[in-house]
Each structure stands twice: as structure tokens, then as C-alpha cells.
């Protein structure tokens, strides 16, 4: 088994989609090992998004992530890192496939790319690092 960090980002929480997103995660059979509502400060987000520092969307991304609480989930399952990213869909909700969280719930207009509802770690190294940031 494997663990990953999933975040339901501020847009997902604000839009009341926490339950709908959790339902998909549970239907897939993944195990909720830990779950908490978090209002991250800038320092935590700078660590989480260190790889994106300097990119044009970095500041708007941090501002967005500080706009309200996120739900942080320590999620376990067989190949859950790859599997959750598959459930989430591609980064931009405008073109994410139907059947995915981003594809089904992402709005197709008035949307910023950073407002894509969820985050999932992209490798075992990222998962270990990010779980330490959100569950310390
Ligand atoms: P995460 O699971 O959130 O890490 O998404 P990802 O792996 O699909 O995307 P990536 O790690 O490349 O980017 C992290 C986050 O930055 C994305 O989830 C978006 O919220 C945001 N982001 C990425 N690319 C863009 C972009 O081109 N424009 C804007 N506005 N935001 C972006
Ligand atoms: Mg990423």
C-alpha cells in the first residue's frame, strides 16, 4: 500500500463539494488515514509549492490557497498516488475529462486555472514531503 496527500482546495470547500469529492475517494476504496480542515499560512504554502516559485501563477496560487480553508487528507491505497491523480483529472478543469473531479465539477468559465478543486501528490517523494508539511 501507499500514501498520498490530497487537498480539497478552497474553491472545493467554499462550493460545498467536500462531501461529493470524499464520496468519489471512498467509492474507489481508498482509506482515510487522517483528515483535517487547515487554513495554511504563507510559510506552509511556500514549502508546499516550492517547485513553482518564480512562475507567473505562483503569487495568485498562494493568494488563492490563503483565501479560505482546505481539507487535507492522508489517503492510503494500492497505487493511490497515480490513482488519485487519475480521479482528479488534468490540471486545467476546462479540458479535464468528464468522469474526473476536475472535469465534472470544474467550471468552464470565470475560472482561474489554480481553482481546480483538488491537489494530489505526484510521486512517492512528493507525498512524503507534502504529508510532512500538512500533517506535522
Ligand atoms: P496539483 O495536484 O495541485 O499539484 O496539480 P498539478 O500537479 O496538476 O499541477 P502543477 O503541480 O503543475 O501546479 C500546481 C497548481 O498550480 C495547479 O493545481 C494549479 O492550481 C496551479 N497552476 C498550474 N499551472 C497553472 C497555470 O498555468 N495557471 C494558473 N493560474 N495556475 C496554474
Ligand atoms: Mg503538482
Automatic annotation (TrEMBL):
Q: What is its EC number?
A: 2.7.4.6
Pfam families linked to this entry: NDK
InterPro entries linked: NDK-like_dom, NDK-like_dom_sf, Nucleoside_diP_kinase, Nucleoside_diP_kinase_AS
Q: Sorted alphabetically, which SUPFAM superfamilies does this protein's record hold?
A: Nucleoside diphosphate kinase, NDK
Q: What is the required cofactor set for this protein?
A: Mg(2+)
Positions bound to ATP: 9, 57, 85, 91, 102, 116
Q: Which residues form a coiled coil?
A: none
| UniProt keyword annotations, A-Z | ATP-binding, Kinase, Nucleotide metabolism, Nucleotide-binding, Transferase
Query: Which superkingdom, per the lineage?
Result: Bacteria
Active site at: 119
- Which reactions does this protein catalyse? a 2'-deoxyribonucleoside 5'-diphosphate + ATP = a 2'-deoxyribonucleoside 5'-triphosphate + ADP
Residues in domain Nucleoside diphosphate kinase-like? Answer: 1-136
| An annotated Gene Ontology molecular function | nucleoside diphosphate kinase activity
Q: What class of enzyme is it?
A: transferase
Query: Mind telling me which PANTHER family this protein's record contains?
Result: NUCLEOSIDE DIPHOSPHATE KINASE
As for family, the record states:
Belongs to the NDK family.
Question: What name is this protein filed under?
Answer: Nucleoside diphosphate kinase
Task: Give the organism, scientific name.
Answer: Microbacterium aurantiacum
Q: Which gene encodes it?
A: ndk
Amino acid at each position: 500500500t501507499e500514501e498520498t496527500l490530497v487537498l480539497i482546495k478552497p474553491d472545493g470547500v467554499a462550493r460545498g463539494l467536500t462531501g461529493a469529492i470524499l464520496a468519489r475517494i471512498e467509492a474507489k476504496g481508498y482509506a482515510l488515514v487522517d483528515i483535517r480542515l487547515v487554513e495554511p499560512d504563507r510559510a506552509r504554502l511556500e514549502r508546499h509549492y516550492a517547485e513553482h516559485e518564480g512562475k507567473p501563477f505562483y503569487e495568485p496560487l498562494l493568494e488563492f490557497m490563503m483565501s479560505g480553508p482546505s481539507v487535507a487528507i492522508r489517503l492510503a491505497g494500492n497505487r493511490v498516488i497515480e490513482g488519485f491523480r487519475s480521479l482528479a483529472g488534468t490540471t486545467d478543469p476546462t479540458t479535464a475529462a468528464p468522469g474526473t473531479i476536475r472535469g465534472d465539477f470544474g467550471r468552464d468559465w470565470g475560472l482561474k486555472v489554480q481553482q481546480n478543486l483538488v491537489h494530489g501528490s505526484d510521486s512517492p517523494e512528493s507525498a512524503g514531503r507534502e504529508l510532512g508539511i500538512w500533517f506535522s
